[in-house]
Design goal:
With 169 residues, the chain is of the alpha/beta class. The chain has helices at residues 58-84, 98-104, 113-127, 154-162, and strands at residues 10-18, 28-37, 40-50, 91-95, 131-135. The longest helix is centred in the middle third of the chain and has 27 residues, at 58-84.
Length: 169
């Protein structure tokens, strides 16, 4: 779709995970990254895959999925900036994990050392203004269908067909 002025483009990403839903006990992560502008969006990349390591909790799975989404989103931003010779704002990353958003906004120490490192990485990306993480209800989570068998794909299909993020985030 026509995304309007280059100077008004942004990157929007949706990240989701399903904890321990694979037969091996591993978790599935999914993401979809859009280029947005002029009230419209175009999908740039998406992925659904087994997370790189087994985690102890849903928070761990959501954190790993968001960390990978954030990395991929920043790469998209850098490529778009290089191609179009413009600067883009922070990536807006949506997750349906309120616990993750809360942990990113606090100095609460997490006992799991690997999880603590992953959250510290996300906090640093937010402090550097590379990402801006926001909570979104599972009803509006576009990456849900990439992680859970039987999840409705209707909302994602509507966005892909219309080129618009019509829901309230």
């Amino acid at each position: 779709p026509n995304l309007g002025k280059v100077s008004e483009l942004s990157v929007v990403a949706y990240s989701d995970a399903a904890h321990a839903n694979l037969p091996s006990g591993a978790s599935q992560g999914g993401m979809i990254i859009f280029l947005a502008g002029n009230g419209k969006v175009a999908p740039i990349t998406w992925q659904s895959k087994k997370l790189d390591r087994v985690v102890k909790s849903p928070l761990g799975a959501e954190t790993m999925a968001l960390a990978e989404t954030a990395d991929s989103s920043v790469l998209v931003v850098k490529m778009v900036e290089e191609i179009l010779k413009t600067n883009l704002p922070s990536v807006t990353c949506y997750t349906d994990s309120q616990s993750l958003v809360d942990h990113m906004a606090t100095s609460h120490v997490i006992q799991d050392k690997r999880l603590r490192i992953d959250i510290a990485k996300l906090k640093e990306m937010a402090e550097l203004k590379e990402i801006n993480c926001k909570w979104i209800s599972k009803d509006h989570q576009l990456a849900d269908t990439l992680t859970k068998a039987g999840a409705s794909s209707r909302t994602l299909i509507d966005v892909l067909q219309s080129g618009r993020l019509t829901m309230v985030c």
